[in-house]
Amino acid sequence: MKKIIRSSAILLLCLMCGTMTAQFNYGEALQKSLFFYEVQQSGKLPSWNRVSWRGDSTMEDGSDVGLDLNGGWFDAGDHVKFNFPMAFSVTSLAWGGIEFEDAYRDSGQLDILKRNLRFVTDYFIKCHTAPNELYGQVGNGGIDHGWWGSPEVYPRARPSYKIDAANPGSDLAAETAAAMAAMSILIKSDDPTYSATLVEHAKQLYDFADTYRDEYSNSITDAAGFYRSFSSYNDEIVWGAIWMYKATNDTKYLTKAEAEYDNLQKEGQSTTSKYKEAFSWDDKAYGCYLLLAQITGKDRYVQDIERNLDYFAHNVNGESVPTTPGGLPHLRQWGTIRYASNQSLLALIYGDKVTTDPVKQARYTGFAKRMVDYALGDNPINRSFMNGFGNNPANDPHHRGNSGNWTNSDSGPPTAASHILYGAVVGGPKEPNNDSFVDDRGEFVANEVACDYNACITGVLARMYGKFGGNPLTDFPVDEIPSRAEIRSFSKFNSNNAFGTTISINIQNRSAWPARVTDKLSYRYYFDIAEGVAAGKTIADYDISLNGIGGNATMTIKPAGGSVYYAEIINLPSIAPTGDPAFRTETQINIRVANGVPYDTANDWSAQGLANGAVESVNIPVYDNGVLVFGNEPDGGNTPTASFTATPESGIAPLEVSFDATASSDPNGDTLTYSWDFGNGGTSTSVTPKVTFTEIKTYTVTLIVSDGTNTSTPVTKDIVVSDGNIAPVANFTATPTAGIAPVTVSFDGSASTDENGDTLTYAWDFGDGNTAVGATATHIYALVGDYTATLTVSDGSKTGTTTEVIKVTDGSPIASFTVSAESGVAPLTVSFDGSGSVDPTGGTLTYSWDLGNGETATTATATTTYTTIGQFIATLTVTNATGDSSVTTKTINVTDGNTSCAFGAPLANPLPTIPNAAYTNIYVLGTGGPDLSNVTNFTINWDLANNGLWQFSMNTNDGVPSWWNNFLPIVTQNFNAAEPAITITGSGFTGLDGEYWATMDADNFVLVSKTGGFTIYFSTATTAPNCGAAIAKTIAVADVVISPNPATNFINVSIRNNAAKSTSDIIDVRVRLFNLTGAVVKTQHIKNRSENVLPVEDLEPGIYILETYDSVLKQRTQNKVILQ
Questions:
Q1: Total domain count for the chain?
Q2: Does residue 78 carry a catalytic annotation?
């Protein structure tokens, strides 16, 4: 019987092998997948970048924190550098390179892979500024997603965000360590020194991740709305340790990985390792299963990875991943192709490198083959989901640079994308019940592209190439040719009659090959006065003027030969493809004649084709720094073109510069004369003059050439002359930096440096009104306080400054504690740890806990279980030997697992940032609300830091009231204040207009009607929230009586009877007083009493918000209180 089974398995395997043939050119797909990463490069592009339509971009990254953070990849179709998914992409790409190195080499893509990854690890090294400091994001998601354009002309602020020991991020630090470790393995044979450098950074980063534990999105809060790690950081701790072991062969890391393995998530409430998810930027657990199985061969890891792979490729106890009819796994709407590709990489590595079971090998490699073929076009809709590859590819992704738009609009222009985003894999079908897909850049769920979307499929394609072949293209890439005039004139007649003409000329910058700012544009308007000359008139009889419409443009009238003249307009304002009107500048030329002077535009070169409506005016030529870039000159043009080089263009005074104008040209081959203005009072007529610049400044050098009849447009270059003196760098130590008053501090600034070797002088400001000079100094701080000590060093010309904060205390203790959980469902057990409290005198502290539920403790740690619903204020008081005390508190939120339909509204604090969130499910809870059944999508983009509501819109499926409904012009809101609210007027939706409190429920956006008894709940979930059949009643204002108001010394808080409860029923009411920054300044706990006194004599006069919360009935109210 065993022989029969074995023979059947072999037969099955052979049959499966027979069907696994090459359906696609995997070499071409691999080649293009790697090309996508060159599109995503940020900063100064390397010389090997092959994308003809990309240029340098975002060159000031890091300047806000005094660093150079150039480099790395833009995350997706946006321009934020999210280092967490970027690091995952590097790790996964390097992993594929390590496992399938021969295929990469044979296809000619190995060096391309390595140089693309090194471009990013170079950036990571810049981001790792100290052992326990790592910059993890550049750019703000909310700000960035409110603009649509090309990265080369990015117009918005790009803040830099970091993690450090005080604000850690274990997931980010460990994943970056993994990326550097994986890259160190891949590149070791080529560059062992660089490999060793990566390992050293990886060691520090892993130690940082392990020592200071937290989720990075708690520190870089802007990332929370985009790349929060929902699996927390335990998977990265294991994942990073495994890669550290692979890179160093140090068994301590393998021991660490196995020791931390049990902290990985389980499936539901079981003890089974989680398996119903896919390997991704968020969850590395399945990669951990595989690598530990590969390294150790232990059964537990083998079982875990096979269970995960079987869920996708086969089944687990009869259950398997949901799929579309075409067989595509469907975990969620976003990135369906991505998840299938990620699992395919694991399946191939396990099937090829780990398991020896032929059935499992066939199962897993067959799954990967089906998935990659689905992505490349073997699917029910017969189209490729890789841009620029295969049949009917998805070529209009949600990608700003690829779009090439110049008006800050994802809907166009242009209608079709300006470029082909070769190799980028889109998200793919988003519905679980069909395989449909619409190639529409505005539909950003299915059409999203991202670095992590391509990371694993690239390795899969390499393996497919190694197995099935398919040659990369020999002529790829081909430089793109612009599909439109990037710079053009767009003109019309405002008026045109026998007495004159007014011509409106719009000069437009629609550049995208690459996009660029233009600040030296000029244009010419040619006209012929032959009819006037025939009547004995001259150019002096024509009144020609320019209206710059708010600009500083100037006009000169020049002869072009015979009766033809042209108006040359220069000094146009800078324009860029960043929006409308930023991409264009308008001028108007007015030509007027007196009675009796004949005038007709019929023979004017530049008037040809003009009418009352604006058209692309090819006979109004445009020049960039004197070079013709658009349009035609009369008769093919007789005007020479000036051009020159300057060597060098910058340096230290005195600076000798050689100029060469031999590249200047004349269309008729006429001999040219040269006129130079060097910007320093000097001139020349030589073709190749030399000039020495002595002053420290920027000189603008101008060249004009002439053929004796026609004169070129001036061209210019800036010569930058510096003094060569580099400012010194101040650096000092202070010992100690903290202590009990009086504190004697020794300062030593001898570590300050000057690159020019100049002698330095030292000036100290101790921050308390005292100063000193000299390389070292000693100062006594007599009073308690925080003092900023400043050292300024000077070389006699330039200075450098640095500071250090000196903390002087009175010896009082400092209370501090951590909790195991700040929120959860009752009964909730919470552990408290106050051992982080300190006594500056070095003495012993005593501890006094009030855990908010009637329980107390007197040890450094405490534990309690909260059995009732509500908010509990846990208070720790520490006291030193002299009786000095310090108090600190934390709020513990205990829920019943359900959600109130008021969802905590109105909030005591401003509405948190909601970065470009799209909700496809809208639930109207309660009674009397609007009918929104035709709404297919609601989008909000709220940026608290910049007080910007960038988007607030709905899409409908029937065009009622419109297909796309932009609410921004019809709403007023105060989202940046306490009690955030919004008023909607004139929406066109019956019952929607009105006033609403705005709040959040997890990641869902909620509008609570102030008057209508209903709530609108915007969600990505397919089920409505569980908050009862009707909206929960909020305590009416009349139920809470505050007196006096205004108040001076105290506030009486009375909870009056109402239909919902009697006085005797009140057993757990919390009172909190907030200032207008949202900080809690007072708390009170009401138990079985109808009136409580809240002392406020120690608070500053002003406006406050008093909140009551009945934790039993889950009812809340907030009232304004004025303190005098």
A1: 7
A2: yes
